[in-house]
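User: Design a sequence. Structure:
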């Protein structure tokens, strides 16, 4: 006999039922338990905890499907590993699906069947949203974005002040009083987004891109109202929140009359806005969406900016953000940029689509209760970095920047962590 569900549990199960289309059911039932995913997952490799194997996560979600949607699961649940959506199952879902998965997708790349594990994990996270069980730190990040317009809760006047003093610094650096960081200017070609951690903690990232735009003589602006490239609702599984944040960007693009939305160096932000956003708002964008990495690469190819690699002489390696590379297909652009901007570049092993996640994605940096597990899982990436002998690690993602900075300290790597924009700005040759 099934356990009686609470109102919230029934609400979560109703959402689960609404997702049962052909794609969802196929991925739930396709796992052959070959174990290849375990050797692909940085959580499992670092801890050897079998609960963290991607196949076990698939089976956890599948057990709910079998319990409520198969004959054997209804009448012989133990025989087929079917589980009630009870407190025990839900507790395991929170711990494993939020606390031991970055949704990086490496397991899916190496899956012999091609099971889309991040898709299943995010769907299960959506169930936990319905039960108000998103970990507190991650939920507060989503709430801040919804309530204040950015995930750091930065007041608009504080943001404007930051941009104003960065503009003054830019003018001094390029020796041009007309250099600017344009704010809320209508009719520009580009509206550039930011990760709110940039104005809060990494303002030099903004300066770097302003310098690049200046050198390229770009027509661009930043909205001081809607500029957040991140959409943490993607990680939490909150589709309504994700829709709201996406819709705000669309409205601001229309308000400013800009042609192209340029996404700052943020892996999950690029995925959420560029690829998932149209699904949430159920329509195509009436504007172009592109990553800043593609923009910089185009500047180099077209000659709009000139670089001197001798300005970056130290050995540099590249960390591939999972959502940008595996999910977004932006693979060679950052390599093209670095090969034109630095003298000495070395690849990690493995790299590109086979790269290991740094451990900072999936909302992990916002969930303090899993900090120890996150740092442990990052050992795989730390070992990769150390093996290169590089002095600088470049990565086009601020989530990755934060995690790598932590790993740098915890594993005593002795490296410098930079965005791609910062490295390019340092190599610029200004007329």
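Assistant: Done.
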């Amino acid at each position: 006999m099934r356990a009686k569900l609470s109102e919230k549990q029934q609400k979560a199960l109703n959402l689960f039922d609404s997702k049962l289309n052909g794609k969802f059911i196929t991925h739930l039932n396709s796992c052959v338990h070959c174990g290849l995913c375990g050797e692909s997952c940085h959580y499992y490799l670092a801890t050897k905890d079998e609960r963290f194997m991607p196949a076990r996560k698939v089976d956890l979600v599948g057990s709910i499907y079998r319990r409520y949607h198969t004959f054997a699961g209804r009448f012989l649940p133990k025989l087929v590993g079917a589980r009630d959506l009870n407190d025990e199952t839900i507790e395991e879902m929170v711990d494993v699906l939020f606390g031991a998965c970055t949704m990086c997708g490496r397991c899916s790349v190496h899956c012999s069947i091609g099971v889309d594990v991040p898709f299943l994990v995010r769907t299960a996270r959506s169930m936990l949203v319905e039960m108000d069980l998103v970990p507190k730190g991650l939920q507060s990040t989503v709430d801040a974005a919804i309530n204040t317009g950015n995930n750091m809760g930065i007041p608009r006047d504080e943001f404007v002040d930051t941009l104003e003093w960065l503009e003054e610094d830019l003018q001094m650096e390029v020796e041009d009083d007309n250099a600017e960081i344009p704010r809320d200017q209508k009719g520009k070609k580009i509206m550039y987004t930011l990760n709110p951690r940039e104005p809060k903690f990494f303002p030099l990232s903004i300066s770097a891109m302003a310098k690049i735009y200046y050198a390229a003589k770009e027509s661009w602006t930043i909205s001081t109202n809607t500029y957040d490239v991140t959409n943490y609702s993607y990680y939490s599984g909150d589709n309504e929140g994700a829709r709201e944040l996406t819709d705000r960007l669309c409205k601001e693009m229309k308000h400013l009359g800009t042609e192209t939305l340029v996404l700052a160096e943020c892996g999950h932000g690029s995925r959420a806005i560029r690829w998932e956003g149209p699904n949430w708002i159920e329509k195509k964008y009436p504007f172009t969406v592109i990553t800043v990495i593609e923009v910089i690469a185009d500047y180099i190819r077209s000659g709009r900016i000139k670089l001197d690699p001798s300005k970056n002489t130290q050995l540099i390696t590249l960390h591939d953000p999972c959502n940008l590379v595996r999910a977004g297909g932006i693979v060679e652009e950052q390599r093209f940029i670095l090969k034109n901007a630095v003298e000495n570049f070395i690849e990690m092993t493995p790299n590109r689509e086979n790269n290991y996640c740094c451990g900072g994605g999936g909302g992990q940096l916002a969930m303090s209760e899993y900090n120890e597990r996150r740092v442990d899982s990052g050992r795989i990436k730390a070992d990769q970095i150390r093996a290169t002998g590089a002095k600088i690690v470049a990565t086009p993602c601020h989530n990755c920047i934060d995690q790598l900075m932590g790993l740098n300290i915890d594993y005593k790597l002795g490296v410098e962590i930079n965005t791609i924009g910062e490295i390019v700005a340092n190599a610029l040759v200004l007329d």
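The first helix runs from residue 7 to 18. Residues 139-299 form a domain with the Rossmann fold fold (CATH 3.40.50).
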